[in-house]
């Protein structure tokens, strides 16, 4: 019932040829050009004319094939890294197997050489944070993770002190008179409300973890020669 729209291109570069692959229990829509780097897939789709009703079948893991196809589409090497847990070695291992299975040499060699280890580095920067009251401590994540960064706690020192308290009982303002003032909690004239109370003070030493990805180590090799910068040699 479905009709294949065959764009009639008269000349020029080879038209894009859509291909449907069935990898295990899942269908993938791609093109002959995209899968060219895999000699196994190229040979498979050369066996007969493509037919959307009859996908080319490979009995393999579709979840892993998503990574394979993403690589074939972009040429970008995969990184499976989490700031807290580091690299996902089992997944690299599984993908290396699949890259060998599909005969994608560049990808297989990249994983085999563990080149991903160089592509990611974690920078740690020490930091001290002072929090006022149990509420702030309970929201430590929110108080520290402001820039979406991950941290590890090294040490917490606890003491009691008289500390500024927000008259509107916004615990986020406790110990931070200027934040409170800027939020217009503080009355312009002094009320009778006592502004300092005794509360727990937590001095926390932690390290902020920042992951850096070295893009140049995962990007495809450019076949274009490097162009000179545009404003070079003006005089
Ligand atoms: Zn306030």
TrEMBL record:
GO biological process: protein homooligomerization
UniProt domain Potassium channel tetramerisation-type BTB: residue ranges: 19-107
Pfam families assigned to the protein according to its UniProt record, in alphabetical order: BTB_2
Highest taxon in the source lineage: Eukaryota
InterPro entries: BACURD1-3, SKP1/BTB/POZ_sf, T1-type_BTB
Protein name: Potassium channel tetramerisation-type BTB domain-containing protein
Organism: Clonostachys solani
